[in-house]
Design goal:
The chain has nine helices and seven strands, in the order βαβαβαβαβαβααβαα. Helix 1 (16-27) packs across helix 7, helix 3 (66-80) packs parallel to helix 4 (104-130) and helix 8 crosses helix 9. It has a seven-stranded parallel sheet with strand order 3-2-1-4-5-6-7, sandwiched between helices. 48% of the residues lie in helices and 14% in strands.
Length: 263
């Protein structure tokens, strides 16, 4: 799907990967519905759009609130006349700690945002996407959805759930006009990883260079345009994706050893 003159909704568009994805879409001629919790962040994204800001609409919403999410498609259609794509970026991590040390409220919050937020958005937007001649749906999972990381076990579980949900949708929508792409970012230089105080390490013990949000956004939009099934972002995601399929027990044990210093 060529995004030129298409309308794409992006969650988490107030910062990081979501913001850069929105700007990448605008640069390719798309109109973009920016969705985030904070209006000031959305205003900052629109300001960064510069001359392309005319193609932007702002929508303050919490992806965990079903009523608010269900109201978004009509609001976006009122602004732009159509919806051709949806990119679900919004997500959070929890503090690095074993599951037994997390508060139930922490666990439930991560599940609500990462899993239910993605499900809520897909359920609300699929009827509109199905009406278009061609449309694209992109869900951002994580490297942690391919192999879990001790200390981020709940986060990993939610991203694994996003993987299964997204790939299940791919199967269900194979013979329709809607393509489904799942994205697996590794270590990305955003606040999501920076606030955790952790640097990803590759199997050889060397520090892995973080992929920039800008490059991540390029790969996400290319995945949308080409209707790719999977998009792996970063050297760490590429290497560990192979290892977990070839030697799953060894790869999982290797990650466990590396995460001991964190826990």
């Amino acid at each position: 799907m060529d995004v030129d003159r298409k309308v794409v909704a992006v969650t988490g568009a107030g910062n990081g990967i979501g913001r850069q994805t929105a700007l990448q879409l605008l640069g390719r001629g798309a109109r973009v519905a920016l969705i985030d919790l904070r209006e000031d962040w959305l205003e900052q994204t629109r300001a960064l759009a510069g001359d392309q800001a005319a193609g932007v609409s702002l929508h303050v919403a919490d992806v965990t609130e079903v009523a608010a999410v269900d109201a978004l498609p009509a609001a976006i259609v009122a602004e732009h006349g159509q919806i051709d794509g949806l990119i679900n970026v919004a997500g959070i991590i929890h503090r690095f700690a074993p599951v037994a040390e997390l508060q139930r409220s922490e666990i439930e919050r991560v599940v609500r945002v990462n899993f239910w937020g993605t499900v809520n958005m897909c359920l609300a937007f699929l009827p509109e996407l199905r009406q278009r001649p061609e449309a694209g749906l992109v869900n951002v999972s994580s490297l942690s959805g391919l192999i879990p990381f001790a200390g981020q076990t709940i986060y990993s579980a939610t991203k694994g759930a996003v993987k299964q949900f997204s790939e299940g949708l791919y199967q269900e929508l194979t013979d329709t006009n809607v393509s489904v792409t799942t994205v697996y970012p590794g270590n990305i230089s955003t606040d999501l990883s920076g606030n955790s105080g952790v640097t990803m390490i590759d199997p050889g013990g060397r520090k892995v260079r973080a992929t920039t949000p800008e490059r991540t956004a390029e790969l996400i939009v290319e995945g949308l345009e080409k209707g790719r099934f999977r998009v792996l972002v970063g050297q760490d995601a590429t290497v560990l994706d192979k290892l977990v399929r070839l030697v799953p027990r060894w790869a999982t044990g290797m990650i466990a050893k590396q995460m001991k210093s964190v826990l």
